Amino acid sequence: MIRAVLFDMDGTIFDTERVYRKGWFYAAEAVGFGEMEQLLARIFGVSERDIGTYVYQTYGADFPYEQMLAIRAQRIADEIEKHGVPLKPGVPEVFAQLKMRGIQSALVTSAPVFRIRDFLERSGLTDVFSAVISGDRVKESKPAPDIFLLAAKELGLSPEECLVVEDSRNGVLAGHRAGMRVVMIPDLQDVNDEVRPAVTYLLGSLEQLPSVIDSER
């Protein structure tokens, strides 16, 4: 029986992955880095800390990662300040439906704490979640299962009682490796042969989630 739904943040609840993608390309152009497309394919859903580890190992210790992060962060902040935090369709209704069914919600994201707090406050979702787990609280980023296992532990539940909702390869694999059922709602990454075996439910939108919950009860 599903007792909690563990939501990824960007690309799942907030329609922000396109903002981040533009930020990465803007920063890459500013520092003269020409392999952003290849890098993005590797780092979707990974914490900024572990992205740094990867780029230094791949491109060398002189890679201007901190400079890129600062440029990207300012670009994202400017976009959010100008346009607000865009929600995925059905977000308020889905949380209302889960609450009505007695299902807990947790936010499980590789995003840094300052961004999580800012987005939740801007969107009015601060009080929605029973737990908020950020990537800096675990040793290994998605696709390792650590962050989802920590969320289950904080909720006092077993992995079998948790349903993961994700949009990206790394998040889907992390949820599956945690022993949880996984809903994938693709955003910028399509389901492929690597990811498909880890997906329990493939949905077109978050609005379909209540039906999945009912089928699991």
Compact description:
This protein is of the alpha/beta class. Helix content is 47%, strand content 12%.
Low-confidence stretches: none
Form type: globular
Record the strand order, biggest sheet.
3-2-1-4-5-6
Radius of gyration, in angstroms, nearest whole number: 17 Å
Mean pLDDT: 92
Q: Helix and strand succession?
A: EHHHHHEHEHEHEEH
Helical residue percent band: 40-55%
Based on helices, strands and strand pairing, what is the structural class? alpha/beta
Largest sheet: 6 strands, parallel
Count of DSSP-assigned helices: 9
> Based on DSSP secondary structure assignment, what is the total number of beta strands?
6
Write the layout of secondary structure elements.
Elements lengths: L3 E4 L9 H15 L4 H8 L4 H12 L5 H19 L7 H10 L3 E6 L3 H11 L7 E4 L11 H10 L6 E5 L2 H9 L3 E4 L16 E2 L6 H8 L1
Parallel strand pairs: 1-2, 1-4, 2-3, 4-5, 5-6
Helix pairs in contact: 1-4
Structure overview:
This protein is globular. The chain is an alpha/beta fold and 217 residues long. A six-stranded parallel beta sheet has the order 3-2-1-4-5-6, with helices on both faces. The model has no long low-confidence stretch (mean pLDDT 92). 47% of the residues lie in helices and 12% in strands. The longest helix has 19 residues, at 65-83.
